[in-house]
Amino acid sequence: MLFRLSSRLFWSAVTLLGTAVLTFLLVNAVPGDVARVIAGPKASADVIKAIHTKFHLDEPIWKRLGYHLNDLAHGDLGQSFVTEQPVAEAILTRLPTTAAVSALAIVMWMLLAVPLGVLTAKYSGSWFDRIVLVLSTLSLSLPAFWLARMLQYSLSYKLGWFPVAGFRGFSHLLLPAATLALLTVGYYARLVHSNMTEVLNSPYIRAARAKGASETAVLFKHGLRNAMIPVITVLGMDVAGLLGGVLFVENVFALPGIGTLAVQSVFNLDVPVIMGTVMFSAVIVVGANLVVDVLYRWIDPRIKSAA
Amino acid sequence: MISTRDFIAMIGTLLLATSLFAAEVPNNGGVLRLARAADMQSMDPAICYDMEALLLARLVFQGLVDFDENSKLFPKQAIDWNISTDRKTYTFHLRPGVRFANGREVEASDYVYSLQRIIDPKNQSPGESFFNGIAGAKDFQKGNTNIITGLRAPEKHTLEIELSEPDFAFEFKMAMTFACAVPKEAVEAEGNKFWLHGFGTGPYQLTKWTRGLKMQFVRSPQVNQQNEGYFDRVEVMIGGDRALHAMMLERDELDMVYLAQVPDIVRLSRDPRMKEVVHPLDQASTDFLYLNNELPPFNNLKVRQAVNHAIDKERLVKLTAHTAVAARGIIPPLMLGFNPEQKMLEYNPEKAKRLLREAGYPDGLSFALWYSEEDPRWGRIVVAIESDLREVGITAQLKKITMSAIMTALQTRKSVPCGYLGWSQDYPDPSNFLDVLFNGTRIQDFGGNNFAYYDNPTVNQLLAEADRISIPSERYHQYQQIEKIILQDAPVVPLVHSAVPVLISSRIGGLRLHPVWLMQLEQWWLANEPKK
Amino acid sequence: MNLLAIENLKVHFPVRQPFIGRAKEFVHAVDDVNFTIAAGETVGLVGESGCGKTTLGRAAIKLIEPTSGRIVFDGEEIGALSGAELRARRRRFQMVFQDPYGSLDPRLTVADIIGEALEIHGLASGATERRRRVEVLLKQVGLDSSHASRLPHQFSGGQRQRIGIARALAVEPRLIVCDEPVSALDVSVQAQIINLLQDLQREHGIAYLFVAHDLAVVKHISRRILVMYLGRIVESGEAKSLCRSPKHPYTQALLSAVPVVDPDSKRQRILLAGDVPSPIHPPGGCPFHPRCPIAEARCKTEVPALRELEPGHLAACHLATAETGGQ
Questions:
Q1: What value, to the nearest 5°, has the Cα angle with vertex A114 and ends A110 and A116?
Q2: Whether B394 and B334 share a structural domain
Q3: Which fold has domain A87-306?
Q4: Is the ipTM of this complex over 0.85?
Q5: Which residue of C has its CA nearest to A210?
Q6: Contact C99/A at CB under 8 A
Q7: How far is C254 from C225, CA to CA, in rounded Å?
Q8: Which residues of A touch B126 (CB under 8 A)?
Q9: What's the pTM value of the predicted model, to 2 decimals?
Q10: C8-58, pLDDT tens digit by residue?
Q11: Structural domains of chain C ordered from first start
């Protein structure tokens, strides 16, 4: 177990390193003088030159990469070119919003997907199952941006059921979270469905029924608990996809999260913040995969004892 | 002795009168909710120069003088001021008891400090060119001295400013936000960080600025003016675009949308329930197409005239949903000194083609047209311009860049062939347009406001003379003659005079149009409770 | 009175459920089957893969819904029961499954798996009592009480089958349907399990419906044997007499395939031509006729009924007589 863990940690570190290098090279390939961004539109040539020296902008790229990686290793994400705010601080102030929307979305779609998956597996082939299948496919195919705008326009603007945008209180998170949930619920409903179907066809389910167990016990105690194991692992790995969807949703609903920070930084050519948000996402994704990997061994008893 | 009956009648009348007036008294309290699409660069009054940012800066910072609704200069945090007979020395008497939010009383030395900051090249203030006429400024900038000899505080509440040359408009310049008082001890102690929670002599102070996210202002413990500081708090959301802000305002989540988009204006104006929120704010402004007079093809008079004749200005007006009027000259109708009789080069495509041929471009010509979409109407206007020009054989390649980028570019000599930008008055005097934009002696390699790089020695001479005239009617007459000459030289194309379309929630009271600042948020109050 | 009586049992599955409307084609898994099981008796049910014997076994204790027919257990018709009523009756009949690897819930310990049965039917008065009874059951099936806290994947196939038997035994059933309980096990282990089942039967008087495809095993354990082909019983009778003189050509073929220890004995191997026809479209007439070595014209059109050819020995063949299959 310990060897496995350290090997996973090693490869996670390698992934993060690769992400840092690749992002750095990509961002610095974009045309535009970064010094102008920092200095402001009215800076004189001297100021520009000073900035070039301070940020090593005149040096060859591989050397700059070296400085950058050195900073990262010391936990220094640098300062925003535009606001001079430390990047880490910028990310941390926005993290709660992004985390809250994501968590709420996950709760919403799981509360919907699990019962749907269980019921459609039990009543496989019925009209209910087919309708849910169609809706699930629809949910998968909807473009995030379109759905967010549509819901905002119809439910917030026209009907006034939710606030239109911004973040003043919990009610401002409901519609953004619901948008994210609607985009993902289809996939998870089908995932639970297929896992449940497989499990329900297992002999031990029949054995449980033969014992005289109630249908509820069969479905949940025996069926769902076994079917959910792969779903949990998918959820963990899906964090990456969630980050992408959050970007659109935050943008449309003007939520003060990391997604809006990431978008703003690109438009502003704010290099440290771009790097910071990308590295942050990378850490989240790699971290989630690592956690899922460890957790998986723990919750699936077959693997747990074998280790 | 008055009888009891009369006494009671008197009290009754008094009470009645008071109750009638009470309806007019503004309410204290509540939250003003605003939004900005992008973050501000800085809250430093020496740096702020765009209209939208100034609205917020003026919540916090105020100065000695200001303009009233009739464009007349009045003493605000000064008692009065006088000007020496040679018009070179200005003496301001500060009103005692005006305090910064931290409780310290404002002194003349504070104004010396604040004005020095504008001149100091370290701060790169866009207002530098307005104040570098102060005696000793140039020496200070070169680093020869560390004080400016023309800025003096002979007594605690007396500020003396000496200019190197007489400048009729200088007192107006003192009303600009650049000249607001800032607390020296706080600025020096914290440096740039101070502006994140800045305070001044205004009715509000900035308590929290989460960059890129939101700003929060709170009523200052020192409210130095009578009719200001009614809200408890002002909250500014940073994010979302103007269309989203309009939706939020309709749903009562915002109180004001600055530069609302044309489709929203049209839609709301037609809605009987909502049309009262639409406020097209008239301002003294002109949108220009600045032609680079130093570079071909616009160094040729006939080419410049051809471009003027090629553009149909009435059509442009339609594109703004009539939130603008066709240009009547360089000086806009709302500015003092406007000439209603001024003649513009008329819309005449045939004449344009002929002029091009005469100029030596029979096959037409092409150039790049730089613009920004800070004001959403500009995008529509340049497209119409491009099509008009195409009709006469001119190809304008549209190049869209950010607002700050175009300002920088236009201020860089020999950089932009043709740029679109609006200019609105900093103060109500024709020199603000003609002298600032068209004086050849003010051309700089970098940082100047003569965006067309136009240099006519006759005009330069006349401008210098006009500057010395102090009787308004004579002064305006002279400027009108100068305007005529400039229009004949056609260094620019004046296009439209646009109003600023603003949406304001019906829960706001205290709205008064201001000729320079457009709105004065510091005077607003809560008229009705929000629906929520 | 018989413990279990099956009358005219049919189980038809739709082949494919279309999006709208009714299914058109059905698999005739069990096609009009009748038999009985007496208390304490072992009845063997043999046939090839796909003949419907597993389906019959499940339908007999209502783990699958029959399409039509009667199931009478201990004098009570359970075919009409459902829900809580049916679940309460489940105590009396249990099942041991074919797949030792899949029939135990991988997330539950052995104690939970067996204990759940006790809990459902209220057979233990508390956790301690439950634990005690689980230990007793484990001992009965030849396992150690320390196994109670382990997980299924920690056991071998044979051990898992013992756990499955313990689970079935826990509720003190009167009938256990053994659905190919040893097919997935090694030959050496098979014998142990069979012996265990016999021991338990002797001790508790449980009846078995022993479903298998291997006639040798069935012969060993059963008192009576039912031979099934394409959803129908084609021959039934006492084990010894059925094996000594099989009347139906299919039974004869099956028997001829059973390996015999004596290498010198010469036997006639009856090889059946062709594959098992599809149960969706069973052939007309006798279901066996396409592969029958002795089929006649009549066999193609007339379905033979199960006729008693000798006392207690029935066969469904037009050509079978009391003398057929003499050894």
A1: 120
A2: yes
A3: MetI-like fold (1.10.3720)
A4: no
A5: C94
A6: yes
A7: 13
A8: 42
A9: 0.79
A10: 999 998 877 666 667 778 888 898 899 999 999 999 999 888 788 999 999
A11: 2-103+175-190+204-222 (3.40.50.300)
